[in-house]
Specification:
Elements lengths: L4 H6 L29 H5 L15 H13 L1
């Protein structure tokens, strides 16, 4: 109920496969086990967080909605 149907339909949601640590989408064209998929740098580096996720790319409608929420309440 927070967003109108038009705005919801405009959002491009990030879907699997993505890195299970940083959440960045992975473009692969072959079958790969995606449940435990993590980038090499995510496995190698010690981050101060366990996981990160984005609902979608920070452009167009999501960027407008986040800026409106942050600066216009």
């Amino acid at each position: 109920d927070f967003l109108c149907p038009g705005c919801m339909e405009s959002i491009v949601f990030i879907k699997r496969p993505f890195c299970n640590c940083c959440g960045i989408p992975v473009e692969i064209t072959y079958d790969f086990p995606i449940d435990d998929l993590e980038f090499y740098l995510c496995r190698k580096n010690a981050f101060v967080f366990d996981r990160a996720r984005s609902m979608g790319p920070y452009d167009l409608i999501l960027k407008q909605m986040i800026r409106h929420f942050k600066y216009q309440g």
